[in-house]
Amino acid sequence: MDIVLWIPWLSRRIENCLGGGIEALLFPGQTAGSIILYSTKYGGVLLTGDSASGTSADQSKAGLERLIRPPIDTSVDDAELRRQWLAFDRPVATVLPYHGTGYVDRSAADLASIMRPLVGSEPTHWDDFQD
User: Fold this and answer.
1) In sequence order, which residues have a C-beta less than 8 Å from that of residue 97 and are 6 or more positions away?
2) What is the pTM for the complete model shown?
């Protein structure tokens, strides 16, 4: 199935399974067919899949709060992924990445700061996970 046709089909299936309110959004960059899942419930809930990574448990304990793009050598098009994050403008209070620490019921200002590295001009490298 063509990816453009697949996204609305997936959104309908997710809504049917989870009672509605969740939307699958095409979010290419990490892979050509990457998606994120978004809900307007609870101030906005975003499941980023591999399009963002949170901090490690040790980094979180040390007070580091950020979301970063996956390392450039694991993405098919880091520039496209950055464009996707630059264009993302939905309200969010909770962000749950597939890897790393998630952020739940946070203020818009907190999440703007936490998500800022997603739109940075420099790509992410494996060393960035060690900070």
Assistant:
1) 48, 49, 51, 52, 53, 54, 67
2) 0.81
